[in-house]
Amino acid sequence: MHRFLRAYPTESKLLAVLLILCAGLSIASPDFLTLVNFTSLLNNNAVNVIWAVGLLVVLIAGGIDISFAVAASVVQYLCVYALVAIGGGNWAIGFLFAGGFGLALGLINAFLIHQFRIISIVVTISTFNAFFGLLMFFSSGRFLYNLPSWWSNRVILWEYQTANGTWAELILPVLVMAICMAATWILIRRTTTGRQLYAFGDNPEGARRAGIPIGLMQAIAFGWCGMMAGIGGLMQAHITKEVIPNALVGRELEVLAAVVLGGARLGGGRGSVLGCFLGVLLVAITQNGLNLLGVSPYAFKMVVGIIILLAISTSNLDPAKWFAKGGKV
Fold first, then answer.
1. What is the share, in percent, of the chain residues with pLDDT greater than 90?
2. What local confidence, expressed as pLDDT, does residue 164 receive?
3. For residue 312, is pLDDT > 60?
4. pLDDT at 265
5. What is the residue extent of each domain of the chain?
6. CB-CB contact of 33 with 210 (8 Å)
7. Could you tell me how far CA 133 lies from the centroid of its own chain?
8. CA distances, 129 to each of 2, 56, 68, 302 (Å)
């Protein structure tokens, strides 16, 4: 336990907060600590986790991307038109198209940042507006409901009928989320490229002098984020069974807050997949708890802001030392 606290201080704090929050909500609401609610949380937040691990790589590399949610919407429309053009396709082709289109949009960000030496937040604000404007122009704001049957049909991985007759189930996006988390973990923790991304994010000038290819690092980071955005968009359309041009706009800030809450540093060089997952889970459980307690949804952003403020203000606390002292300050 002590070793885990030393190795993962932020993750340890988040886990402790989650346990306390879950304990409180289970007392306040009998519907919270149920299998149905837990599986629903995973199903409903799988897309946010997919986006979060993509954004994590960008933050590790010292960048920031707020265009990924709009990119996901663009990918949804591109996939619909491309699949219609080839006669319907299947899941393999769908993932290939979604990942490929998302990768291309991410590489546009990387190219602009590297080629014109513009900071990433300025570029992604620009591409956010450009992507969204182009999407609304060419789609005329049309909603798309006629998705291929393989895309819109619910894929249930596991289901269980509880004693009161309700069903707990896990659907395809949860499996895709787990695969994306594992792939991101391998990239950043088990490859030379991952070590270079951390080094570049922590000290860009030092990394440049050490011979790390800066353009390649930015291409990998933003390309990975774009690919995850595309895959997340594919899964979101699978859940809702429709494609709406502005449905995903605004979720980028929620995901960004969760990733930063999970320990990723805006200055780069720090972050983990576990922290990323716990950050998304904390935001999701907070929202879920407020809904179960009948609190106005307008209070959600305020509560999340308070949680993030508390997390940042306690970032200098060392849980390993606290644990070693038996909880004494």
1. 72
2. 87
3. no
4. 86
5. 9-315
6. no
7. 23
8. 47, 22, 11, 26
